[in-house]
Amino acid sequence: MDSARCVGHGRCYVLAPEVYEEDDRGHCVVVRPDVAPEHERGARLGAENCPEQAIEIVAGSASR
Q1: Domain limits at 54?
Q2: Count of domains forming the chain
């Protein structure tokens, strides 16, 4: 997760609240950096819908 790129659209945590949450400014926070197999689809969906491309999925985890 590149927090400098995140401007708080919120698509990630709306699409995958089990992986992403919002901080006090509405920016994304990765709450599960080691994504379980059952949450991989949501993690990818959240990353793919980030307008700033602030989230990258690496080896089954959400990070950047």
Answers
A1: 11-63
A2: 1
The CA distances from residue 60 to 4, 9, 23, 24, 43, in Å, are: 22, 23, 23, 27, 9
Question: CATH code at 24?
Answer: 3.30.70.20
pLDDT band at 58, cuts 50/70/90?
Answer: confident
Q: Give per-residue pLDDT as tens, 15-55.
A: 999 999 999 999 999 998 899 999 999 999 999 999 999 99
Q: What does the buried/exposed string (b/e) look like for 12-30 if buried means 16 or more CB atoms within 10 Å of the residue's CB?
A: bbebbeebbebeeeebbeb
Contact 12, 48 (CB under 8 A): no
Q: Is residue 3 a part of any domain in this protein?
A: no
